[in-house]
Specification:
Layout lengths: L6 H4 L23 E3 L7 H10 L4 E2 L10 H13 L8 H7 L5 E3 L7 H7 L4 E5 L3 H16 L2 H9 L4 H16 L4 H22 L5 E4 L5 H8 L13 H42 L1
Parallel strand pairs: 1-3, 1-4, 2-3, 4-5
Helix pairs in contact: 3-8, 6-9, 6-11, 7-8, 7-11
């Protein structure tokens, strides 16, 4: 009977130690080759895995889990673009924030599609699209419900070392880029924003620079477009909804553990003081 894969093996980024440098001090170490601008829930996790297999390290929202210090710089980017606070990011800032990546996909990069297309004119663009009704059901289940869930947001408010910064980046994507501030607003806006995004990418990217990748078409079209050899492994096929729910459960448990430890650190001395007070007043 084959050994069951552990959660740590399935989601290594959630268990890896964050040893990465302050993004403001980094320098680019790989070329930016690919901007994968499909919307969330269109196979972005599978594409991240595919790019990594091709030797192109890819930034995905999952990458934030062991790059917590990057969250602050992403917030700076949101402030500059959407709130007029600070200077808009140029290639210099993007090179620092994305120094170790040769590809980007998913949130938060999705909110800066135009900026990244302009900053990296040599990078090729890949676009994946799903049937909008199937996409909407997946998006609602794995993104909308999770983003506005009470427990997750309560944890994010109190656990500011891990859960909080990641929640803040995703929330800024929703409020600034999607223009929504509640679960109902996100549901109402989702389909139109989806259509607008694809129309925008197709307008700004020349056809010779763009691959409209069909999910399920395997390695050949992607490798031909990128000038890479076809790997001797199957193309990744990650169940993003199941994977997302597993990640949320792990993050929630970690957040609860950190909050519990913090509570114990001040509750213990309080209990000791009460015991001493009781002894002294008897």
């Amino acid at each position: 009977m084959p050994r069951q894969i552990t959660l740590q093996e399935k989601h290594p980024e959630l268990f890896a130690e964050d040893r990465y440098a302050d993004p403001g001090k980094r320098e680019r170490v790989v070329l930016m080759e690919v901007l994968c601008l499909g919307y969330m829930r269109t196979g972005t996790a599978s594409m991240q895995n595919a790019f990594n297999t091709l030797g192109i390290p890819c930034c995905h929202s999952f990458s934030l889990y062991n790059h917590i210090r990057d969250c602050g710089m992403w917030i700076r980017a949101f402030n500059a673009k959407f709130a007029g606070k600070g200077e808009p990011f140029t290639r210099t800032e993007w090179d620092r924030l994305l120094a170790e990546y040769g590809a980007v996909t998913d949130v938060p990069a999705l909110a800066f599609s135009e900026d990244l297309v302009a900053a990296y004119p040599e990078a090729k663009v890949v676009l994946m699209e799903r049937d909008i009704e199937r996409w909407y059901r997946s998006f609602d289940d794995a993104v909308t419900k999770v983003m506005w869930g009470r427990l997750g947001n309560l944890l994010a408010d109190y656990e500011r070392g891990f859960v909080g910064p990641i929640r803040d980046v995703h929330r800024r994507w929703a409020t600034d880029w999607m223009g929504v501030r509640s679960e109902d607003e996100m549901r109402a806006a989702a389909k139109n924003r989806y259509r607008e995004h694809y129309a925008s990418v197709r307008r700004m990217v020349p056809k010779e620079r763009l691959l409209e990748y069909k999910l399920g078409s395997g390695w050949e079209p992607l490798c031909d477009f990128l000038g890479k050899s076809v790997p001797d492994v199957e193309f990744p096929n990650i169940n993003e909804t199941a994977s997302m729910h597993e990640k949320v459960a792990i993050i929630t448990r970690r957040g609860l553990l950190k909050v519990s430890k913090r509570a114990a650190s001040w509750l213990g001395p309080l209990i000791l003081m009460l015991m001493l007070w009781r002894l002294l007043t008897q």
